[in-house]
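User: Could you check the structure of this?
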Amino acid sequence: MEKFDYKTTEEIKVPEKLIDQVIGQDRAVAIIKKAAKQRRNILLMGSPGTGKSMLAQAMAELMPAEELEDVLVYPNPLDENMPLVRVVKTYPKDRLPPGAPDIGEGRRIVEEARMKRMTGGGGLSPSFLILSILVLLLIYLAFSGMVEGENKWVIAAAVLGLFVFGAAMVLASGVSRRVGVFESTEPKLIVDNSGKKTAPFVDATGAKAGALFGDVKHDPLQSGGLGTPPHLRVEAGAIHRSNKGVLFVDEISSLGPKSQQELLTAMQEKKYPITGQSELSSGAIVKTEPVPADFVLVAAGNLIDIQKMHPALRSRIRGYGYEIYMDDTMPDNEENRWKLVRFVAQEVKKDGKIPHFKKEAVDEIIEEARRRAGRKNRLSLRFRELGGLVRAAGDIAREQGARYVELKHVLEAKGVARTLEQQVSQQVIDLRKDYRVFLNRGYAVGKVNGLAVMGDGSSGIIMPIVAEVTPASSKSEGKLIATGKLGKIAREAVENVSAIIKKHIGKDVSQYDMHVQFLQTYEGVEGDSASISVALAVMSAMEGVAVDQSVAMTGSLSVRGEVLPVGGVTAKIEAAIDAGMKKVIIPKANEEDVYLGRRKGKIKIVTASNIIDVLQESLKRGSKKERLIEKVRGIIS
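Assistant: Sure, the predicted structure tokens are below.
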């Protein structure tokens, strides 16, 4: 089939191997293949939803499974608090004939021991044989006619008595085993790889110490011979179950320093004994022999997680493996667009509850990937969020009884499956519009409609900014006072405005206090994308020039008056459209990052390279505007 020559995703072939299903992470895939072959550790860093856990599972799939091992724990006759550990090959070639069922050697040993115990140590009990022969003999006498009259009742009573005696013997035998009259020598299988065709993959994300490193259960009945033998209370941890396989730990910084240190020890020694993790538990005095823990660690997280990683653990990964930073976007070309078509087919197959997509519906998913990329000629690789849109559209199609997902279902899903930030921003815009916190028509002095993003940058919001210039409260200097729960970067960006004012207006700012207020920004303000808005508000207040309220703007500003690029431009423009603005000013460098899709043409987009362009497009026409622009132009040129 030629690319894009399809009608529905039913026709798209989905690869069987997980590694072939990974999309857009070509560099990471190449390293994962190499690491799986050489058994190297991996540290994956990147944004959520870019395929970190999928790569880890794919690595386990690529690793060979011939060396899988089962682990059994036996009682130690010399020291019951140090159970013995026995390791056996899951599939020993000398024990399993061709065509044998997928039962591991460990499970087979346990089953044999259990059968041996049930049969009283390898054969039928002599007492049980004697009782059975007596019962059969009495039954024969009763029905053979050799016994007559009341003697039959005597035989019946004898048979009943033998049955009761036999039951009592069986019960006594079982209780004696439980209460320690006969010590249990039956092993416990703590790692069972029966039926596995690939290397084990264990996800230990968020695991506590007991689940990660193994534990010994507490025994409340420790006296009177009622206790459970220590070896039967041993439980393997994730590091043991991932032996010869992959141990995946997402959000690696969630592990405490002590756990990271123990994890490093297990990686170095390739074995780790199991002991009780709680000091208040009776299992704390039990410690097994070292249990194999020869795993490949795949740790994942965000860049901020690196700061909380144990330096020695990261050094171990670097020294015996690779560090990979996941890509957020991929080039917008025909090959990658075809990969997105395959992604939709994969999601449909993986979900199993939604119908396949028609071509025009898939095209809309690709359009959404362009919009979410936030960069020119790029496609987003945050497939978890795109997968959410796919499933939402599929749910709507199924609810309406459609055989295939159509374009209308995807468009409806984009409204239904909005993020929390998008829903909140829409409510905030409506609220501020109703109470006239910001205006979208007319003119006002010292008031500017800035733009910001919420959360992960997928949702924009209008951020009204007002400024007032007053005589300085101090004879020695003027101050720039900003309020509105500003973060560190935002506050520094506001302070830079005073340098711009000094240079471009030429006034001595030491005679003035400049007050800047970000209206109703209870969620806080961070970043420098409001710099041009703050500068414009202060200039407007200082010179008394009115600002067009139908204009919204975003952009960072250097101390030399240059407008610098910012992020989330598309989301900010969409917020301006929702707020009823007629014009939006964005940095010239962000011109090709704008992707509005079906909303294109609903607002006039103007680019700015410096502060003069901002003044030209936002101030009310008149002599004051011309004088201010000439003053600034004279300094810049």
